[in-house]
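U., I forgot to send this yesterday:
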Amino acid sequence: MSAIFGALSNPNRLQIFLRLIACCSEGDSWLTEPEPCPCVSELGEDTGLAMSTISHHMKELSRAGLIRMDRNGQKVECRIDPSTLEKINVFFGGCCKPWKK
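Result:
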């Protein structure tokens, strides 16, 4: 979990990650695969970061297990990893249960 939270502690990586979550269509849960998958260059739009910096952030998110990156021709498509999101959900659900009323 520390690798996951370490990756998300960077504001730029968090922004990219949240953009991927938002790619799920209305009514879909985050456990479904987003359609269509954005590519790395699309995720970096409006960030003001160099493409090399965006690629670095994507690599860190991938290394932490938060996203999957798949090559489709010249594009590298990105999607959230539902199993990792489930781990985060379980982590917060488990640690917060004693405080729920």
